[in-house]
Amino acid sequence: MTKFTFFAQMEPGDRKGVVVSFPDVPEAVTQGRDYVDARAMAEEALGLALLTYPLRGLPLPKAVASGRKLVAISPAPDVAAKLAVLDAVRAAGMTKSDFARLIGKDEREARRILDARHPTKLPTLAGALARLGKRLVISVEDAPSPGPKSHHSVTNETRAAR
């Protein structure tokens, strides 16, 4: 099973907020006002960074980083499904014409599905994955509780306590 979950490092920014970086996806760096905002920004940054790999003709990175202080982050479901289609087509060595024939669509629509910059609806991606011999699995898990407070919040609380 292919998962698009990567581990992120979340740490206080120099002056405020929370900075997020991904050891396995160095292009994905972002910042949020607090932990919750940083996590949401990280999901988007991870998805956008991963979508650049097919555009650059690169294979998707493998998630190998681990550690107690790292936080698991996944891109949005539609982005993960798009990545799965792009990766499966690349692994099969298919041309866009081959892919169009396989999914029973005209070449123009197949090109849009294979365009990392073009949004594609989840049912379309699930259908394409099925034709590629893959099955899209969606799971639901508890949302993580807010983690460490941002540097800014901690600084303000310290000032208020004085």
Write the layout of secondary structure elements.
Blueprint (H helix, E strand, L loop, with lengths): L5 E7 L5 E4 L7 E4 L2 H21 L14 E4 L3 H16 L3 H8 L3 H7 L8 H10 L19 H11 L1
Antiparallel strand pairs: 1-2, 1-4, 2-3
Helix pairs in contact: 1-2, 2-5, 3-4
In the CATH scheme, what's the topology name of the largest domain?
A: Double Stranded RNA Binding Domain
In DSSP terms (H or I, runs of 4 or more residues), the helix count works out at 6
Structural class based on helices, strands and sheet pairing = alpha+beta
CATH class categorisation of the largest domain: Alpha Beta
* Overall mean pLDDT: 88
Q: Terminal Cα separation, in Å?
A: 53 Å
In total, the number of domains comes to: 2
Lateral strand order in the biggest sheet: 3-2-1-4
Instruction: Kindly provide the radius of gyration, computed on alpha-carbon positions and rounded to a whole number of angstroms.
Output: 19 Å
Q: Strand-and-helix sequence, N→C?
A: EEEHEHHHHH
Approximate strand percentage: 5-15%
Low-confidence stretches: 150-162
**Which second-level CATH architecture of the largest domain applies?**
2-Layer Sandwich
**Beta-strand segment tally:** 4
The general outline is elongated
Q: Helix share of residues? A: 40-55%
Main beta sheet: strand number and arrangement? 4 strands, antiparallel
Tell me what you see in this structure.
- There is one protein chain.
- The protein has helices at about 35-55, 75-90, 95-105, 105-115, 120-130, 150-160, and strands at about 5-10, 20, 30, 70-75.
- It folds into 2 domains: about 5-75, Double Stranded RNA Binding Domain (2-Layer Sandwich); about 75-130.
- About 45% of the residues lie in helices and about 10% in strands.
- The model is unreliable at about 150-160 (pLDDT under 50).
- Helix 1 (about 35-55) packs parallel to helix 2 (about 75-90) and helix 3 (about 95-105) crosses helix 4.
- With about 160 residues, it is of the alpha+beta class.
- Strand 2 (about 20) and strand 3 form a beta hairpin.
- The termini are far apart.
- The chain has a 4-stranded antiparallel β-sheet with strand order 3-2-1-4, covered by helices on one side.
- The radius of gyration is 19 Å and the shape is elongated.
